[in-house]
Specification:
single chain; about 50% helix; Sufe protein. Chain: A; 6 helices
Length: about 150
């Protein structure tokens, strides 16, 4: 699962950068830039099991679970065939990857999505796809907690 680029920005850096970008087209380009930093997603992970249902674009999320102090910690990698969606995947990974499952379940990526002004500028299909990705990550965290 170490396919992601190590120098990916933290969630705080992403929020700070968004606050500096006043125009939507600048923010849009930044989201695409975040997606380009995801790195290679292994072909072997492009499976039906990793495909996120409910997205207009093709989206894959692969999850690995490790136990740290007895608690499940999830790491995500992802990809999409659409540049803007790939950026949304990058934002979710920055927010939720390498976190304990209980934190992932408690997190509110939808509120962040709205705080960053993404919902008002993306199509309803993209917004629904974002919700599907969040749902998938939460489901994986709940599954890890139940094991």
């Amino acid at each position: 699962m170490d396919q992601q680029i190590a120098a990916a920005p933290s969630m705080n850096e992403i929020i700070d950068n968004f606050s500096l970008l006043e125009e939507w087209d600048e923010r849009y380009r930044y989201v695409i830039e975040l997606g380009s930093g995801l790195g290679m997603f292994p072909e072997s992970a492009r499976t039906d099991a990793n495909k996120v249902q409910g997205c207009v674009s093709q989206v894959w999320l692969a999850t690995s679970v490790q136990r740290r102090g007895g608690e499940p910690v999830l790491t995500f990698i992802g990809d999409s065939d659409a540049h803007i969606v790939r950026g949304l995947v990058a934002i979710l990974i920055a927010m939720l990857s390498d976190r304990p499952a209980r934190e992932i379940v408690a997190a509110d990526p939808i509120a962040l999505f709205e705080e960053l002004g993404l919902r008002e500028h993306l199509t309803p299909q993209r917004s629904n796809g974002f919700r599907s990705m969040v749902g998938r990550m939460r489901a994986d965290a709940l599954m890890a907690l139940s094991q």
